[in-house]
## 1
Amino acid sequence: MFEALGRSLARRPRRALALWLVVTLLGVAVALVGVTGENLFERLESGDTPVAGSQSTEGNEILATQDTTGESVTMIVSGVDLADPGLATTMAGVNATVSEVTGVASVIDPFILPDGLQSPAAAPLLAKGGDGFIVVTELAASLTEDEAAEVMDDVVAALRTAGGTLTAAQPEAETLIGSTSLIVEAITDQVQQDLQTGEAVALPVALLIMVLVFGGFLAAAMPMAGAIASIGAGLGVLYALSFALDVDASVVNVVTLVSIGLSIDYGLLIVSRFREELAAATTPVEGGAASRRRRAESPAAQALVRTMATAGRTVAFSALTIAISIAGLMVFRPEILRAIGAAGLAIVLIAVGTALTLVPALLMLTGTRLARPGVLARLRPLRKVLATTADVEADAGIFSRLAERVQRHPWIVLLTSAAVLVVLALPVANLHMRNSGIELLPASAPQREFVRELAAEYPDAAGSDLVVVTQTTLEAATAWTATLAGVTGVDDVEGPTALGSYAVIGVDAAGTDPGGPQASALVRELRALDPGFEFWVTGQAAGQVDFTDALTERAPLAVTVVVIATLVLLFLMTGSVVVPVKALLTNALSLAASMGVLVWAFQDGHLEGLLGFQSTGGIETYVVALVIAFAFGLAMDYEVFLLARIKELYDSGLDNDAAVRLGMQRSGRIITSAAAIIVVVFAGFVFGDLLVIKEVGFALAFAVLLDATLVRLLLVPATMTLLGRWNWWAPAPLLRLHERFSLTH
């Protein structure tokens, strides 16, 4: 099949090139312009990770359906003299101006109350510090979503004008404007900015690395073309997916960075193997039908067919292992994980599609020019550098020498490598998963400053840590508040208040972190109560408890699916039952180490200053799931790259140790180069400001770095040396099965 694809691309390379050009441009156009009046970024969700059927989700749905008010916009005014008699006059004009905006239902500030600042109702509207107040503008509940967005813009503009009026009256006055819609907008805007930042950092550095790997720009441009096509097509796929699932804003960046990494990864392997086969295609061949067919084909066509039959098959197999790992996300209940899983699967298909069609087509069009030294190689200052870094296929070199040293002391290498991984994994024992909202934005973001100021100076307006929705009478809910106040971990109880046929009670947790372990423990304590009527506990801690429980519930199924599928696929590739088990164990240990470092860096906050973030005291719940899925898939990616070469050499007649040494030499440079590029791509997103993207970028960059060095260069050759010929053992019935269904070259 792969040889046939290679011959087809050799005959019609321009057709594949034209197809990808159309797909890329169409994907970009659809994502940026849209087809329904909304582009991709306008369709993104943000700040909420609901779990269908969970108590917090059901409670929030009740609150949403029973609430008959429209969305509100709040302006915080600080640094003013409340005793200034002219302030009330100024605010009367502000109130009138904002009230005139079509679609505004009401405007409330402490100055319009009957007794003004002395009214008991004014207390929640006045700052605790005594130098500020808030203005709350409520939109009409009858507005459609589009109408509400337009009115929101008009209200914000009017409030900003009002802020200027206040500053003119009292020069020390400062204002902050915030709402739920503005918070979501801030996060989605940050996604776009981080996407541009990440690409601006990652793509140029990745290109530089590939120039060093290939010794010139021409070969380096091939994988880069695949990455650009994958980005364009991937954005179009995400736009289409947004009509089937709620796509969180962070999914765009996660999928984009994985798309870039995989496309370059696979393209690198294809280009490298093509250059190797191009050199072999120019050597004389003996007589016979096969040799006559080779002589009838151009060297580039011969090289492309052989490349597709070897590296092309490896790329397809590698993509399948990653797809299986990512597919594990789709068994979970949270929609954000299913969206990432679906988008990830699509991106893997696009990446392998560019590697198996677009990159080979470009290689065919360039032909034998890739065999000639590039312009850079002719420059004397760079010649020595490129002689060291550019890919060569010598049977002896740095990687074969490293493998030989490992084979002299395999037990020492094995135990030392395992000890390092275990030490790195230790912090994962204290992992705390949380669902953050505004904390995802940088500390300097205006909307985060707004929320912080509101909580500090206007606690009554900021709302309670937990909201308990009860399906009972107001009297029964009032009687139950005494029980709630006595629960360990409860700091304060507010309400109840009537909401349609329900009664709502606010509960504040002891401590200052509404998403911390104390708040999560309180959620479980409250839900264990039996008041004699139905109730729902909602809030940040409730949401993350439900998300964590959903992960725990389906994790065994996801792990089982991924493990069984991986074992089967690696067996079909190697014909061994030992190698797949070893691969799973080493990759699991490497993954645990990567998660441990993530906890140490972000949850414990040891890299706050270096990476520019504020620790939330935990790791985002869905980050844990997707890092495990993607990091495991990428680890299997490099495992396949290495095993494919070792198995190919072992089947050619070399003994186990020689196959390991030569396989390391021939694949080590590509694995290391591909890993360096992926590390750069992922690390590029650490320079963004959105916390969740920082966590994902850092975790995946470190996971790839650790896997491509300690694991792939030391631990794997050590274990394969110790196992010897037992690496390739399988029971006789399975060997016969492998002979029939094998996926070898």
## 2
Amino acid sequence: MTNEHITQMANDLFHEERARTRLDGWFFIKQLQRRCHEEFAHLPPQQRAAETLKVVARELPLSISKNAMFAGTQRDAFARSYALINPAFEVESFAGYCDPTAVFGDITPGEGITQEEIDDARRYEKQGAYAKALGEVYADVENLTGEVVFFVEQVTGHLIPDFRPMLEHGVVAFAEKVQNPALKAALEAATILAGRYAEIARKQGQGKLAQVLERVPRHGARTLREALQSYMLLWQVMCLEQAPNPFAFSVGNADRIFEPYRAAENLDRESAAALFKHLLVFYNVGDRSWAISQNLIIGGKDIDGSDLTNTASFALLDAYYDMNLPQPILSVKLHQNTPDELYQSLGRFFFTPGVLTPSLFNDDAMFQVLARAGVEEADLPDYSIAGCQEPLIMGRDNANTTNSWLNLAKILELCLNNGKSLITSKQIAEPVGADANPPEALSNIRKTFYAAVEKYAAIMANAANGCSRALSQLPVPFLSAAMHCDEIDMRDPNKQGTKYNGSGCLIHGLAVVADSFVAIDQLLAERPEDADKLITALQNDFTGYEDLQTFLLAAPKFGNHIEIADKEAADVASRVADIVAAQKNYLGNAFRPDFSTPSTHLLYGYWVGATPDGRKARTQLNYGTDPLHGDANQGMGLRTLSSFTLPYEKLTGGYASHYGIDPKYFADAKTHEDKGLAFAKRVVAPLFFNEANAEKVSPFYLYVNVTTPETLRKVLANPKKYAPSGVYVMRIHGTFVNFLDLSPAIQQDIIARLDLESTRL
């Protein structure tokens, strides 16, 4: 086939997938799991899980499209669940993903599935040990999670498997070296699946595909096509093992995974790109690409600083640009020796409206951060990104990255209001500082706040550990094999299986809290007579206290290179990171501070009352480590200098930062290639590789949207004109999605956070 024919097949296959409005495979798997739970009740849990996975591989209904170059799909592992791409999503009613039986509400009767079967399956699931254990954890802390002082969840995905040994040697040879019988049995599921697909391919006259399936993943791959086929089947089995909704499994450095196979047959860039297009389609599930936050990264350096960009890197970029699909996420590793050719290739992504934009990671800084966190030097080049922006070592790091979520702004609210919610007036926590007069309470607010953070962080960590222990009742022998766990299950709560292990904590409200402290200080210094009014003003959401709100809003804000505000933000980040890192997870390892807020700055802000920085109640918090939108208005240069003050060496779980960039600042560069080089010079280098910041660890993450609010409003008003394909890709946080698929609340959030005054050049 020609590359054009292969590309057309990929496009047709994507349109087939986007036409799917039902995702029922996971429900069928649940029925099989229920049957197997009884059939294999005599087996130990891990062995039972392995035998169940083999039954799923044998009995799951399979098909191969006439447009498919490869067999396999992850469709059966996902439901129509992810809230932020659901048009019915509402900030007011979102309650997280803590109920494992909520997924049964995401399927409707039809296609042979009755409401009685759905209800019965949900009742059965509720009676399971896992659901009961998880329910007990949430019941213990519901007073604090209800208004999001913190939140906890069981982490199913957010991992990066290492399939390289299986690709190279084949599953059969790999299994021979595995000692654990459960892991060995689970690996058989991949060969069972391949055999069934091979039979289908032969019956449909797809003889070449059948030949490939008869070889891989049973044996080692020799060509890029064989490697991709093997990889997709391994990925499918991994997802089936955790159906439904193993969100945010990620690929890792795909260019390094697949380049040896491309090079072995000397396949040219164009032909490799055509095959990679089918890999990208594989990651899109159903009508809204429901398998969210699966990250694929390219580029980067070796330990000695040598650039590792290769032909597969550019072939993957070509495939991404030509297809422009909502998933999977594209990330790019950069360093001081990144070749100009890579920046030139990236220019087309940043400066073509409606096209995906990659996340950017700074290898030079990331190596420093991970080394300080205990990662061995030899493993540093193998760091990749799980989910949105969490750095993990591929195949060796079980980081439980979204295990806990801490809301600093809500904690500040409780400290200022004697433990009562400004939203509901409920007494959420014990009274704090009840006997202190307002000026005294305000002057001691930092001491009160950090003591409260320590208290709630400890409660949060204990609850998060409860979620992890509950999840351990669902062993994952196949995934364990891909994570280099031979002796035990990687979810074992008593003995560490993966080389690295931790738990994540996503920290919200950094700038809101820091700016609030600065505003309180200024109020006490300049208008001490109004100190008595502040608490009452917050309780009334500044109604009747507009003059006081104006004063608070005028106080110095983080992001404008004002020393007092920047120093406060750095201090808040440092102290909170230390408190979080001091918490121990279920295996005694540190929690990893992660200042990222994947749209949760909007969700959690809804439960926070007015704050002393002048922010109104129920409005969003700041995004990640960024200033609160609208508060930084002095341009990208000063905002970048503010960002240099933050303690990136302590942000071992990652962080989030977004620049909304007006394309007019690059009008002097005529071609996409020239714009890519200009972007490297004007945006990347000043942030990542600035000599003025050489004494400190530099920022290591950024994502951008190069557009204007006016453009996005036009897209929403007339999508047929501005997005005739029905797809207009934008960054939402660490992932990109079809802007037209998003709920209205999230669409407006993206528009608001473009915040072009903070990034004007």
## 3
Amino acid sequence: MLESRNICLEVEGEEEPLFLLNDINFCVPKGHFMAIVGPSGCGKTTLLKSIAGIMATTSGSFFWEGRDLAEEGDFKPYEIGYVPQFSIAYDELTVDESIECSARLRVHGSEDEINDLIDSVLEETGLTEIADRQVKRLSGGQKRRLALAMELVSHPRILLCDEVTSGLDPRSEQEIVELLHQLSRKEGRIVISVTHSLAQLDLYDSIMVLVKGNLAYHGSPGAMIHYFGVQHVEDVYPQLGLREPADWSRSWLKHRGDYYRRMESEHLEKYRAMGQEPPPATADEDEEEATPSFLTQFFTLLKRRFTILMRDRTQLVLQLAMIIIFPILVALFSSKGQEQLHNLTDQASNDIAAEVQQQQAIAETRAKVGSAQSGIIMFEVILLGLMGSNNSSREIAGERLIMEKEKFAGTKTSAYLSSKLVYLAALVLVQSLWMYLFVQYFWPLRGDTMNHLGFLLLANAAMTTVCLGISANCKNPDQASLLSIYLVGFQLPLSGAVLALPTVIENITQPFISAYWAWSGSVMGLDSDVLKAVNGIVQTTFSPISLCHWILAAHVLVGIILAYIGARRERWE
């Protein structure tokens, strides 16, 4: 049984506190199908999220099977299913893959048990015939069935549905309500559905009516018209505006006992008409279900991410375009750079005029060599930084609500973030290695090539992880993308590769500019003659290679920490 005792949710108003929920009391027995209805903004979704524990209440308590959820622990992940208004499935996956992923993230079992569970849920929700269809090709009603199926894999004892019939045609709406009714008759499950629609009310065991956060009625559908003194259910909403919300709440408290007895009697009659007995009110003695291990969740999430990448043509084409085009852009400067390096000599002459002319030519050549070497290295670093930004700026922010839903269902934050890091590490490795090999073929670096490769990897990894941290802490993907683009845009002017910054500003900004450290470390690995040429045209001071390694590693670590903090924080809106 689910019971609410004096639930209040208070927020600050402009002049005085505002109650989103005000002294809500109700009881819902096992095997019960309840609708929460009321005018827009009355607190329906707020109450549902409060039951789920997504929104914290100001006072009062919810009790589940006699357990105070606030004091004795919240719902276990396997006890509750929550179907939100937003989609919880990826468009690129099929129906079968979506349910399988949900099952492997939530249910501990053998391969055969998982497969049998998937088949059972597909059949229960009427999705067997379209199991191989991609989510993006489903109708609105089919997507709602899929959302329900993804919750049913853990056999939840209470199922909370937020506006699952909104936007559907009448037939699809009826099918979904009938499905929810059937689900409430299995395993003593409580199903609570928030809805704007007043259709198919006869299928519900009880109707809860809210008005501006106050409970105006909770009883059987048949008694609702009598209670509000109207002829049709459509007249209930206009009737609510004739009295103050607090008056409706006080009125309901006076009549609650009589209407609850009638509701219990009708509930009993419905079960007996089906040849069944209502489930017992006592708590089940089922053993607690085991949550899948970290590795199971990690590999499930990692497989899903690569599957989505391979099916997302836009993202795949963008990745391939950057991998192919960016190294070509760098290689365009290679022929000139090779010729300059080849002509770098220090020959002397007995003729003074010729020697002066030769020294002038050498100085000009050194300047050209230094400029080419420094510019090409920085060009590589900036382009890899741009790749890193594209890799991760939308990676968490773009699927934030799905991530929150999966965390709510028992997915470990560590497993989720680890899968992202391994996926991004694969992108970083491919992008950086190809940039190095392609450019090296056209423009052999005069210096420690392995050192250069290491800094290309670190430059990409630093920007990728920092942007992942930005993504995890932003409210939406557009905000994350914009901040990440700004971060890349500031890399070149603040690196000191073009113009040396004033010492005061350089000391402040330099630690945060990953491009400087990758550029500086690569330049310091050049041959001594080439390094002299670079020093001749660049006024910025270069840092030791070991320090560059440590600073870039620190950038990677900070990015990971920011990503973990952001991913761990709840952000449903």
## 4
Amino acid sequence: MKKAKRILALLLALVMALALVACGGNGGGKTLVVGYSPFNSKFSPFFSETAYDQDAQAMTQLSLLTSDRTGAIILKGIEGETVNFNGTDYTYYGPADLTITENADGTVYYDFKLRDDLKFSDGEPLTVDDVIFSMYVLCDPTYDGSSTLYAQPILGMDAYRSGMDSRGNVINAAGPDGYTANDLYTEEQYNTYWDYYNTKAGADLAQEIVDYCKGNGSNAADDSVAACAANWGYELAEDATVEDFWKAILDNFDGNVDEAVSVESAGSDLNTLTINALGDEYKAGVQTGNSAPNIEGIQKIDDYNMRVVLTKVDATAIYQLGVNIAPMHYYGEKDKYDYDNNMFGFDKGDLSHVRSVTAKPMGAGPYKFIKFENGVINYEANPNYFKGEPKTKYVNFIETTADDDKLNGVVTGTIDITDPSFSNDTVAAIEAANGGELDGAKITTNTVDNLGYGYIGQNAINMSVNGEPASDASKNLRKAFGTIFSVYRDVAIDSYYGDRAAVINYPISNTSWAAPRPADDDYKVAFSVDVNGNDIYTSGMTAEEKYAAALQAALGYFEAAGYTVENGQLTKAPEGAKLEYTFWIPADGTGNHPAFMIVNEASKALKTIGMNLIIKDLSNSSELWDNLDAIQVDMWAAAWGSTVDPDMYQIYYADVAHGPSTAKGVNPMGGPGQGGSNYQYCIADPELDRLIMEARSTTDQAARKAMYKACLDIVIDWAVETPTYQRQNAIIFSTERVNMDTVTPDITTFYGWMAEVENIELK
């Protein structure tokens, strides 16, 4: 409580400043004020990256498809579709109806019918042409945003995207050894590219690291280059520049540019940074071979009907096809749209006009974007919104640099809605403001399960016997550690989160329909059987008895892995294994992490049987990700963010076993690699791969759930993950200023307060 009061006192000056933002400059209308973490100004339906920028542009946009409170897609949006949730019937509306037809030849038709009365916020009518334009932007060969619509098996997609690449990529592929005459780029363009790449892109990389440290709050007190570099592990002079920072990075890697970039980058490589710096001329597509003039499977029927043809069933497609319907007359160029003549609102390979309005979004969503100045986004209600003009005329999204600022903004009356981290300190401060409750006269608190989960990971290559990650011996080695980790989960998670998180037993978010439930017949507590398949624990065991039983079971796994065991002690490791391993955990160097108690207690227990588990507590989390990429980490603690669909391809499929470092030829699993996250685990299991692909090839949810349960069992058998917790997120509302009866009811992970923002009223 004392900490909360101290924070409130320190922020009085900030409160007075924010009050001016909340109350002024909007022509007398009431303004809903929402506290957000800093924006990156990429407010584009095509190019937004951070969750905050995505929310900022979503206020202005209308998606082709909508979903219900469980994340399920609504197929009859025009007349509305009623779905029961927790005993209440809710009717959902959207801009379109969708009919899906699976054909005998294996193809799938997605037939969309649009409402015929839709308008953008500027009054222009919305038609199928706008949908087609939006899809073509996302499928352009030079598109580099976060959407992966182009990866869907849409008829003719490969033919359309082949034979073209950005000019910058083509120059990069040609190499730095000298210009050779060609029709794709001039000698001047070539020299300009490599001059920037060699002399300035490194400083851009350093600047990106600095911006990353500032953006995530790592350097709130000191945002100098030197301070950010120190947070990244480099000591520089106080007046250091980004050029100095890049030089220090290079020196650390003995001048090896490729290695320096692969380890230290905050997201972009030198090629990307060079292209971004040089602009549209280098982002523009150039013809490198044969390329189809259109995507055969994106078909216009009339102004309000269209069809998308897939060459095969893909259960993930429906989520990719629900694109934001961007106004072609604003993001594109109307004189470049002629569907019958393969013109789709822009020149293929040239998204310069689309990018030019990235900072100022426009669409058919509930609000119109007015401006972004001084950390505040101003919105005004869209009178043309298809569900009716929003009841609150003005909305401001304001940047707040810390969770304490978000909370205290609501307490002191300058913020109406925000999302602080739901920590013990936050809970204490909310309860103090409300007189002991999470819901009260000052603040109303809404909690939902986070779309993701916490886990402990083990790299199958580093945690193996005789260099054979898939062997029974290697699995038993990892199960020994998994057994010890799992037994301390209850006490650790309860200590850190209280009732705001729960221990989970499968590596999947509880928010997913595919997550196994305790009532299921084959549900099993993670790592609760010994090497012979017998239950480790019995009912009525005390916590201490469970710890002792887990240690004995772990000893059995170690022995089965090939360790020499004498008098209850590990005395010799098998070939390729060790008696000492390192656990990496980003706990701020202070033990501040949900899994820290798990690891600390496990380390003490393992030491009693001769296994030394070294805890590497990181003050800079990027150090973990860099070393995971380089396959230098034995074990670690982290959390996954999930998606609505439980597709596991990016996480566990063997062919994406080393995404970020594939370009260096380091794929440890022997496959080509396709940029996923399996490089963390390096799991390679043919049956797992088969199940992942089979689950993608059907839309039968019951069948998919059974297949995903089998996948999860394989992951647990490999023991590359120990599931730890499912935590909650919080949205808080000012009870004093927001009419809570008008806020979206039954908010869920998939259906947030913004889903019905048009209904919110202020008191």
